[in-house]
Amino acid sequence: MNVYDLILKTRNGRGLCESEINFLIENYTQGKIPDYQMSAWCMAVYFQGMKADEISYLTMAMANSGMRYDLSSIKGIKIDKHSTGGVGDTTTLIVAPLVAACGVPVAKMSGRGLGHTGGTLDKLSSIPGFTCELSQAQFIEQVNQIKLAIIGQSAEITPADKKLYALRDVTATVDSLPLIASSIMSKKLAAGADGFVLDVKAGVGGFMQNVEQATELAKIMVAIGKQANKPTVAVITNMDQPLGCMVGNALEVQEAILTLSGEGAADLTELCLELASEMLVLAKHSRNYSEARQLLEKKLSAKAGLVKFGEMIAYQGGNAKVIEDLGLLPKAKRQIAIVSQQTGYINSINALEIGKAAMTLGAGRQKQDQSIDLAVGIELKKKVGDYVETGDILGFIHANQESGQVLEQVLSAFSIQPNFTGNQDLIYNKITSL
């Protein structure tokens, strides 16, 4: 095959067959196709798009480019939950133990944060002693014993995706829906779960800026799951304001513990119950959504998910007493009040600006090898729709350094108007392959 001909074919919208896509991915991963040719192909995809079968071929080629986890020795149907990334998105730390407490195995591989969106591994790293480094054998054994493990994704998974994403990042081809969908789903397929629940964020704090884009991405990913014989559900959710009330690593672990204790923010609790319900249905543990929801609400009331979270922490070397004593988590030296400068209704809280402010404090990283401050972040005391008066406390900045610039940044994220005309929708839509 000739790479030039494949670029030309894609540029002209004629599409590639499975063997042609396999040729591209295999040879690019092995360094036999230069970056300038692969970037030309990515740009052709950016402008021409890809047909559904092409996207599936690309996804499978990337999934097969490295190690694939075999989770067949874990008893039961394994359902993975994935979020496209947001601000204050603590759902994994709540949903995973809650689902495991129902008896459904959760074998979860997560990543570290990059940019304004936090990473699950960074959050767990704020728990004293906790390790995300388990061998595949230890990972499988732990899930069989307690139904739950959360570990770091192996560097050997989807090397083609890592190489292709780095290229897209410097060639203005990141925001191509076929390339985004295949990137996400290749990692999911390689991780070995039997089905997927996808939380696709829409809004300023997410990767997709609007509901239409997020819905289109969700449809493509659900179609990939169906093609791979992996039942997949995508939930389109609001990321215009931060989810829950905490943004920052230790702060979000604190919020997860409070939520599993039945004391969480309404929006975070609702979304976790929604995602967990879909997981129980896909795992065939519950006959329908209503039955799943009832079971999860009982488990939440009984704090069964909190107990399971503590069990996982202990198994992975952490101090499980943290679920009873939040003081064991890292604490910032300073708390600076965020005081309202206006009277009125909060019409919006810009999630992107809050995420950037948390990054400025040191909670996030701009480069993969950058160290972060696990203690810092932003705590919200008010949410969209709340009425506030001048002088009311909107929240707190948790800082270990001077934070005047951050205070201005956070205040500018709040839009307070005499009347409420904002958007309080949490869940926009659901796409299913069933």
Question: Layout of helices and strands, plus pairs?
Answer:
Elements: H1 3-11, H2 18-29, H3 35-48, H4 52-63, E1 79-83, H5 91-101, E2 106-110, H6 120-125, H7 136-146, E3 148-152, H8 159-169, H9 177-190, E4 195-202, H10 211-227, E5 232-238, E6 246-247, H11 249-260, H12 266-282, H13 289-301, H14 304-315, E7 334-339, E8 344-349, H15 351-361, E9 377-380, E10 387-388, E11 393-399, H16 404-413, E12 414-417, E13 427-432
Parallel strand pairs: 1-4, 2-3, 4-5
Antiparallel strand pairs: 5-13, 6-9, 7-11, 8-10, 8-12, 9-11
Helix pairs in contact: 1-3, 2-4, 2-8, 4-9, 4-10, 5-11, 5-12, 5-14, 9-10, 12-13, 15-16
Could you explain the architecture of this structure?
- The chain is built from 16 helices and 13 strands.
- The chain has 434 residues and is α/β, with parallel strands linked by helices.
- The chain folds into 3 domains: 3-63, Transferase, Pyrimidine Nucleoside Phosphorylase, Chain A, domain 3 (Up-down Bundle); 79-324 and 428-432, Pyrimidine Nucleoside Phosphorylase, Chain A, domain 2 (3-Layer(aba) Sandwich); 331-417, Alpha-Beta Complex (Aldehyde Oxidoreductase, domain 3), CATH 3.90.1170.
- The strands form 4 sheets. It has a 4-stranded mixed sheet, with helices on both faces. It has a 4-stranded antiparallel sheet with strand order 6-9-11-7, with helices on both faces. Strands 10-8-12 form a 3-stranded antiparallel sheet.
- Strand 4, helix 10 (211-227) and strand 5 form a beta-alpha-beta unit.
- The protein is globular and about 70 Å long.
- The two termini are 38 Å apart.
- The mean pLDDT is 95.
